[in-house]
Specification:
Layout (H helix, E strand, L loop, with lengths): L1 H23 L3 H21 L3 H25 L4 H5 L6 H33 L7 H9 L4 H22 L11 H6 L2 H4 L12
Helix pairs in contact: 1-2, 2-3
Length: 201
């Protein structure tokens, strides 16, 4: 019991510290690395709660794919971060107000929904009847099916928006035109050259 409590406080402190460093680090690459550290500690907290499936999903999906993608994107983009930080004090008060409102909404949602989640978890399955993955799937696809489908629609809209922004017409950028490639004839593509024996081209 003491070891689990110590592990909880260790993971929680490192996760909070990593979250603060994500938004305060001057180097964006360091921010992504601190984000990966926060994901690992959150996975450790899930393991302590007995949700091994969520911990593995967090490590495999977010650390193995999303965070690494963030890292490559940040390293590839040529962004003047000094110009982005210019004028941050001007909007600091508004940012603090928005952050406080979001924090209040999260706290209110946690207090309002926590009893319902516990009740649903007890009503669907008990630990002796099903595994963690089965219980999570039973709750997710019954009581929270509309929220699950809504998140899928949001991801679909985000994916379509990213594709539209990527494929927009820009001057000075070479684009692949598949119709022209398919319409090319053999005469336009291949040139047959007869080279005499013993001579070069």
């Amino acid at each position: 019991m003491i070891l689990s409590a110590l592990a909880f406080y260790l993971f929680a402190i490192i996760a909070v510290f990593s979250g603060v460093m994500v938004i305060t680090a001057r180097n964006p690459v360091h921010s992504v690395l601190f984000l990966i550290l926060a994901f690992f500690n959150a996975a450790g907290l899930f393991v302590l709660l007995g949700a091994e499936f969520l911990a593995m999903i967090l490590v495999v999906v977010y650390v193995g794919a999303v965070a690494v993608l963030f890292l490559f994107v940040v390293m590839m983009l040529d962004i003047n971060f000094a110009a982005l930080r210019h004028g941050i004090r001007q909007h600091l008060f508004l940012g603090l107000v928005v952050g406080a409102v979001l924090l209040g909404e999260l706290i209110f949602s946690a207090h309002a929904l926590a009893p319902q989640v516990v009740a649903h978890a007890g009503a669907v399955t008990s630990p002796n009847e099903a595994t963690n993955t089965q219980a999570l799937g039973a709750i997710l696809y019954t009581h929270y099916i509309y929220a699950f489908e809504g998140s899928g629609l949001i991801l679909l809209v985000a994916m379509i928006g990213a594709i539209v922004l990527t494929h927009r017409q820009r001057s000075g950028v070479r684009r692949q035109t598949i119709a022209k490639q398919i319409a090319r004839t053999r005469a336009e593509t291949i040139e047959v050259v007869k080279v005499p024996t013993g001579h070069g081209i």
